[in-house]
Specification:
The complex is a heterodimer of chains A (about 500) and B (about 325).
Chain A (H helix, E strand, L loop, with lengths): L1 H17 L6 E6 L14 H10 L4 E3 L5 E3 L2 E7 L4 E6 L13 H13 L12 E8 L2 E6 L6 H4 L10 H7 L13 E7 L3 E6 L13 E6 L3 H9 L5 E3 L3 H9 L3 E7 L3 E6 L10 H4 L1 H9 L3 H9 L4 E2 L22 H11 L4 E8 L2 H15 L3 E8 L1 H10 L4 E6 L6 H8 L13 H10 L5 H18 L2 E6 L1 E7 L2 E2 L15 E2 L1
Chain B lengths: L1 H28 L4 H6 L5 H10 L6 H13 L13 H36 L4 H15 L2 H15 L15 H35 L2 H8 L4 H38 L5 H10 L3 H29 L1 H4 L3
Classes of the chains: A alpha+beta (about 500), B mainly alpha (about 325).
C-alpha cells in the first residue's frame, strides 16, 4: 500500500510538473474518413479539408472565390490563354526540410500527369508541357487555351509535394505525405483520426495559432454534436440542417454557414440508352412542366430549415457567374399543366431514383407531392448510393437525383455535364451550340467575355432542361465558443491559419 | 482429444470452401461498380480503366474467384481498393479493437446476466424474479442505437463523465481506452445479458427440480453449496454453448455499436467496405468471421467435454 501511494504521489507530482507546457490542440469532426493522403490520388472531400492545412497550393481562393497567391506570388497569361507563367515564393521549405523551388513544382505537376494512379490527369489535361524557366519561375504551356487551369491549381492539382519523399514512396506517398503547408503529418489511424502538428519552418508561421490539429471522422451528426457539446470536439463540419437551430440556441456554440459552389439537381435521361426513350426524356416541355411544378423556396424551408438557397442554374445566385436575367422561377402549377397539355398529356408516370438517406427521401417526397398537382405521378426509387452512381452512368434511369459538390471555376460545374463528350454527361445531352460556347469560355482570360458565354449556355439549358437544378446547399459548421477566428470558406475547406483556441 | 479436434478441423475445410463461393458470388451480384463508387466525382476514364486492370476486375468472374482463393491459401487476402492497404493488415488493425469491445461487453453480460439469472431462479415467482425479468425484457427490446445516443447525451454531454465517442488503444493509454469503451460495451451487452439471464434462470430451474438436488438438500448441504456447486455447475453447460454462440452475435452487434460510438473496428470497416464495394475487404472480413465462428464453436465443444465427464466417453 505504501509503495502504491508513493507511486501515485509521484504520478501526481509529474502531472503537475508537466501541466505548464500547455499545447493548443484543435479537434475537428469530419463527416467521413479521408481516403489516400496523396494529393495526386485523393478523391474525397474530407481529404481536401485535411490537405488545406497540410499541403499549400500554388494559388488559393479568397472569400469571394477570387484566385489569390499562395506558393506562387504572381502569375500571367499570355498568347490568349495558352501559356501561364508563375513566380514561386522564395524561402519555402517542405516538412522534411527540402527547399521548394521551380523544379519541385515541375516534378509535382509531372507526377500528377504521369503517376498511373493519379486522379489529377483530367484536371491537368490541357497541360502540354511544364518547365522551370528560372530557379523560382515555372512555365505551363497548354495544348489549347484553358484559363480554367488556374482554378485547378487552387486545389489538389496545385498542391506541391516534396520530390525526395515522393520519389521514395511512389504510389505509397499517402502513408507519409510530405508537403509545404502550415501543419505537418504526424499519424493516421484509419477511420479514427488524422493528426497534424505545427510546422515550425512554415513560410507564414506567425499566423499559426495552434500546435496540433486532430481530424476525427464522425459520420453520425447526433454523435458529432454530442462530442462538440461535451468538449471533445472544437469544430464540426457539415452539420445537418435539422441541427442548425439547436446549435444557434446553444450558448457554448456558434453556428456559421456559407453557400457552396455546388448544386442539387435531378438528371433527366434524355439520350443515355434505351431508357431515354420515354416522354419525359424526349419532350422538353414535360421537363419544363416538372420544373415549374416545384416550389424551390418551400423545399429549402421544409427540408433544409431555410439554410439552403433555391436555384435554377449550375451556379448559385451568390456567384458572379449566375445569370441574373434568369431568376429562380416561382412555382406555377397552371403553366405546368398547360405545358403538359401542349405535349399531349393529362398525367404522366415517372420513376425517380434517389439516394436512400433521410434528407433525400424527405426532399423527394415533398417534390413528389408538389408535381402530383400538375399531373405527374412520380414513383420514388430509393437506391443505395454506389448503385445509384452506376445506374446513372449506365443510363438505367428515367429521372435521377444527385448532387455536385461544385468547383471554383464555372467550367467545372457545367462543361463535363452537358458537352457531347463530357466525362460526367450521364444524361448524354448533346448540343453543338452548347459545346461551342463552353469550349470558347475556357479560352478567354477576360472574365466579361466568359460571363457572356456562360449566360448564353444558362439560357439554352434552361430551355432544353436536361438537368433540373433545384438549389444549393450550404457548408454549415458548429463551432465551440473557445475557438476564435474561424470563418467558413465558400469551397467548404477549413482554412485554419489564424484560428486560435482559448 | 487431439484426434477429436483434428476431425473437427477437417470438417471445417469444406464449410469454408462453400462460404468462400457464397461470399464471392453474392458480392459480384451486388449492383454498383467498385471503381465508380471509389471514383466519386472524379471519373477520368483512363484512370478508371487503369484501376479496373490493376484490380483484375476485367477478368472473367471464375478466374477472379480462383486467383482470389489461390492467393488466400498463400495468406494473401488482397489489397483494399479504397485505401491500398493489404486486407489482412487492415483486419489485423481492426480486429483487436472489436475484440476488446466484445470481450468487455461479454464481461458486462456475464456479470449482469448470470447472477441475476441465478437469483431469479432461486427466488422464483418472488419480487426479485419479476424485477429481473422486467429488466431483461427491456434489455432485449431497447434498440442499441437509441440507448447509445441516450447514454452519450446523459453521461458525456450532461454529466461529462466519459468521452462521447472515439477510441484509444489499450496499449497506448489504458485508462482512456477503458473509458471510451465502457458505454459501447455496455450498450452492446444489454441484449446479451438479458438472454444470458433468461437462459441461466431456466437452466437453473431445470436442475433445481431434479432428484440429485433433492438428495443434496436432504443430506444437509448448505443452500449456498447446493446452488453454486451442484445446481450451477450443471446448469453451466447450456450457458457455455450459448455464450460461445452469442460471442459471434456480439461481433455482428458490434457493427451498429461501432457506428454509433465511432469506434474504428471490424464492424465499421465492414459497413464502409460494403458501401464502397471494396470487394477484397468484404471477402476477407466474411472469411475471417467464418473462421472465427468455427473456432468459437470448437472451443465451446471442447469446454463442454471438459466440464461434463459424461461426454468424454463419446469421443
Amino acid at each position: 500500500m505504501k509503495k502504491f501511494s508513493a507511486f501515485t504521489s509521484a504520478l501526481l507530482a509529474s502531472a503537475f510538473l508537466a501541466a505548464p507546457v500547455m499545447s493548443a490542440e484543435l479537434r475537428i469532426g469530419l463527416n467521413d474518413d479521408a481516403d489516400v493522403l496523396d494529393p495526386a490520388q485523393s478523391r474525397t472531400f474530407v481529404g481536401r479539408i485535411v490537405y488545406t492545412s497540410m499541403c499549400d497550393k500554388l494559388v488559393d481562393i479568397d472569400q469571394n472565390m477570387k484566385v489569390v497567391p499562395q506558393l506562387a506570388t504572381e502569375w500571367a497569361w499570355s498568347e490568349e490563354g495558352k501559356v501561364l507563367t508563375m513566380k514561386i515564393r522564395e524561402g519555402v521549405k517542405f516538412h522534411d526540410g527540402e527547399t521548394l523551388d521551380a523544379a519541385a513544382v515541375v516534378y509535382t505537376i509531372e507526377r500528377n500527369l504521369t503517376l498511373p494512379e493519379s486522379r489529377r490527369k483530367s484536371e491537368l489535361s490541357s497541360v502540354a508541357k511544364v518547365e522551370a524557366t528560372g530557379p523560382l519561375e515555372v512555365k505551363f504551356t497548354l495544348k489549347s487555351p484553358d484559363v480554367t487551369l488556374l482554378a485547378q491549381l487552387t486545389d489538389r492539382a496545385g498542391m506541391i509535394v516534396a520530390p525526395k519523399a515522393a520519389k521514395e514512396l511512389g504510389a505509397n506517398f499517402g502513408s507519409k505525405p510530405v508537403c509545404a503547408g502550415p501543419f505537418k503529418f504526424v499519424e493516421r489511424i484509419q477511420q479514427d483520426r488524422i493528426v497534424l502538428e505545427k510546422f515550425a519552418d512554415y513560410w507564414d508561421k506567425d499566423k499559426i495559432k495552434v500546435d496540433k490539429l486532430t481530424f476525427l471522422p464522425i459520420p453520425d451528426t447526433t454523435v458529432k454534436l454530442a462530442n462538440l457539446r461535451s468538449g471533445d470536439l472544437d469544430i464540426a463540419e457539415r452539420i445537418s440542417a435539422s441541427d442548425a437551430q439547436s446549435v444557434k440556441d446553444d450558448a457554448n456554440l456558434t453556428y456559421a454557414d456559407v453557400i457552396g459552389p455546388g448544386y442539387m439537381a435531378m438528371y433527366a435521361n434524355v439520350n443515355n440508352g434505351p431508357r431515354a426513350d420515354n416522354p419525359l426524356g424526349k419532350d422538353k416541355r414535360l421537363r419544363q412542366a416538372f420544373s415549374l411544378a416545384i416550389d424551390r423556396e418551400a423545399i429549402g424551408q421544409i427540408v433544409f430549415e431555410g439554410t439552403s438557397l433555391a436555384g435554377n442554374q449550375p451556379f448559385p445566385s451568390t456567384s458572379p457567374w449566375f445569370n441574373k436575367n434568369l431568376p429562380v422561377p416561382a412555382r406555377d402549377v397552371e403553366k405546368a399543366k398547360q405545358l403538359m397539355k401542349e405535349a399531349g398529356y393529362e398525367t404522366l408516370d415517372i420513376e425517380l431514383q434517389h439516394a436512400n438517406n433521410t434528407t433525400q427521401t424527405q426532399m423527394m417526397q415533398v417534390i413528389q407531392s408538389m408535381v402530383a398537382e400538375a399531373g405527374f405521378n412520380v414513383s420514388l426509387k430509393a437506391t443505395e448510393f454506389a448503385t445509384l452512381l452506376s445506374e446513372q452512368t449506365a443510363g438505367n434511369y428515367q429521372l435521377s437525383r444527385s448532387d455536385w459538390s461544385g468547383r471554383i471555376d464555372p467550367d467545372g460545374n457545367v462543361h463535363q455535364f452537358v458537352t457531347c463528350k463530357g466525362g460526367i454527361n450521364d444524361v448524354k445531352y448533346c448540343n453543338p451550340e452548347v459545346d461551342k460556347l463552353l469550349d470558347e469560355a475556357r479560352t478567354s482570360p477576360d472574365e466579361a467575355v466568359r460571363k457572356e458565354k456562360y449566360d448564353a449556355v444558362s439560357v439554352i439549358l434552361n430551355d432544353d432542361m436536361p438537368i433540373i437544378y433545384l438549389g444549393h446547399q450550404p457548408y454549415a459548421y458548429a463551432i465551440s465558443k473557445k475557438v476564435e477566428g474561424f470563418a467558413p470558406s465558400p469551397d467548404g475547406m477549413m482554412r485554419l491559419l489564424g484560428v486560435s483556441k482559448k | 482429444m487431439p484426434v477429436y479436434i483434428g476431425k473437427r478441423l477437417l470438417v471445417a475445410i469444406p464449410t469454408l470452401l462453400i462460404i468462400s463461393i457464397f461470399v464471392f458470388s453474392l458480392q459480384k451480384l451486388l449492383p454498383g461498380d467498385p471503381i465508380l463508387a471509389m471514383a466519386g466525382e472524379e471519373r477520368d476514364p483512363a484512370t478508371l480503366a487503369f484501376l479496373r486492370e490493376k484490380y483484375h476486375l476485367n477478368d472473367p468472374v471464375i478466374m477472379q474467384y480462383f486467383s482470389w482463393l489461390g492467393s488466400m491459401l498463400m495468406g494473401d487476402f488482397g489489397i483494399s481498393l479504397r485505401t491500398n492497404q493489404p486486407v489482412l493488415e487492415l483486419i489485423g488493425q481492426k480486429l483487436p479493437v472489436t475484440i476488446q469491445l466484445a470481450v468487455m461487453a461479454m464481461i458486462f453480460a456475464l456479470v449482469i446476466g448470470i447472477p441475476t439469472g441465478i437469483l431469479a431462479a432461486v427466488y422464483k415467482n418472488r419480487a426479485i424474479d419479476y424485477i429481473a425479468n422486467i429488466v431483461a425484457l427491456s434489455g432485449l427490446s431497447v434498440p442499441n442505437f437509441w440507448l447509445g445516443i441516450m447514454l452519450i447525451l446523459l453521461i458525456s454531454v450532461q454529466l461529462g463523465w466519459l468521452p462521447a465517442s472515439g477510441y484509444e488503444s489499450i496499449f497506448v493509454d489504458p485508462v482512456r481506452s477503458i473509458k471510451t469503451m465502457i458505454m459501447p460495451a455496455f450498450v452492446l451487452s444489454t441484449a446479451l445479458a438479458a438472454q444470458l439471464m433468461r437462459h441461466t434462470r431456466s437452466a437453473m430451474l431445470g436442475v433445481l427440480s431434479s432428484d440429485y438436488i433433492r438428495t443434496a438438500r436432504a443430506k444437509g448441504l448448505s443452500p449456498r453449496e447446493v446452488i453454486l456447486s451442484h445446481t450451477f455447475r450443471n446448469a453451466l453447460l447450456p450457458i457455455i454453448t450459448l455464450s460461445a454462440l452469442l460471442f459471434g452475435e456480439l461481433l455482428a452487434g458490434a457493427v451498429l455499436t461501432e457506428q454509433i460510438f465511432t469506434i474504428p473496428g471490424f464492424g465499421k470497416m465492414t459497413v464502409d467496405a460494403v458501401f464502397t464495394r471494396d470487394y477484397a475487404v468484404v471477402q476477407g472480413i466474411v472469411m475471417c468471421t467464418a473462421i472465427g465462428f468455427i473456432v468459437m464453436n470448437l472451443i465451446a465443444d471442447v469446454l463442454y467435454v471438459l466440464l461434463n465427464p459424461r461426454l468424454r466417453a463419446t469421443l
